[in-house]
Fold this sequence. Notes:
The chain is an alpha/beta fold. The chain has twelve helices and eight strands. The chain has helices at 3-16, 41-51, 65-78, 94-104, 133-148, 150-160, 189-194, 204-222, 248-257, 261-273, 293-296, 298-319; strands at 32-36, 57-62, 83-88, 112-115, 164-169, 229-235, 282-284, 287-289. An eight-stranded mixed sheet has the order 3-2-1-4-5-6-7-8, sandwiched between helices. This is NAD(P)-binding protein.
Amino acid sequence: MSSMLTLLSILWYQLAFKPKPVPPETNIEGQTAIVTGSNTGLGLAAAKQLASHGLARLILAVRDISKGEEAKAAISRENPKCQVEVWQLDQDSWDSMSAFAGKAQSLDRLDILLLNAGMKRLEYTRSASGHETHIQVNHLGTALLSLLLLAPLRKTAALTGNPSRMTITASSLAFIASVDSVTGPEDQVIPFLDEPASFKPGTDRYCLSKLLNVLWARELAKHVNAKEVVVNMVNPGWCMSEFHREDPGAVSAGKYLGWSSEQGGYELVDAALRHPDSHGQYLSEQKIRSVPGSVLSAQGQVAQKRLWDETLALLRAVVGPDQLPNHLALAD
Ligand SMILES: NC(=O)c1ccc[n+]([C@@H]2O[C@H](COP(=O)([O-])OP(=O)(O)OC[C@H]3O[C@@H](n4cnc5c(N)ncnc54)[C@H](OP(=O)(O)O)[C@@H]3O)[C@@H](O)[C@H]2O)c1
């Protein structure tokens, strides 16, 4: 799909579609969920909505514990029966992510994982890890957590006899980026994107980081048995959270087109609780949608596999091969 078609489709659904909450009878009693980036915005909205459907234990994965405590107070006021915990997680830090995932291994169950944390900047910044910040936080951080948290999700599926759920928050802006950006020389995609010279000021890098989320989630799904964990990705729509704080153009247009964070939360929760047949699929407007032909093309497949191989090698080097699941062969 060309950029213009993607933009027109966004305009269309923002005006014509209104996200709805999951049916009130949706019952997740006894279940445990982790929501990343849940102190504010769509993550907070989704966390509140999950708690309102009988969730037993909710882990708010947040950068700043004090902001997490405020979110916890707001959720607990409305849902006193849900046990809400605030755990520190900074996707800018390998140590923080490893510590978070280490703690999660001791959960007695993990039914729902919503990998939602993300950021957008219009200028180049470098993370402490040395990677460009969108690459670090939106792609590498999400990818690492998706691997490190597979074990508790799989363990829970064995316990309950039902697949656990992993939803990655993507964006339809992913399809403005080109898969060509991911088909550079082998093992050189991420080093290239880390270079300031590869960064065009504006939203291009954010869009590309969301394409990386889509490619990663699609490839991950091939390596995970849907009977154990249903892995899907969701476009929450254009929502007036704090997300666009550095992008005045998006804030202005959003006044006319934007949905609320609550409506964005409806999209996330719909993807995380419904659509049992959505393994490896992209959801938008609360339906499974086809990804553009460019992603499905031979070149898209090359990009997807190259990103997977390169990311996996990088993550193995950073956290150590023993930390990552060895069951990453293609699933049946
Ligand atoms: N809003 C939209 O229009 C829109 C559209 C499409 C997709 N999305 C996606 O939706 C997701 C949530 O966005 P939002 O609208 O809720 O934005 P938001 O209000 O800015 O919330 C983003 C969340 O991510 C957290 N976060 C940022 N950097 C992090 C890091 N290094 N480590 C851990 N957490 C970090 C933030 O924590 P702090 O509060 O500490 O910064 C915050 O909790 C993102 O993945 C975004 O790409 C949003």
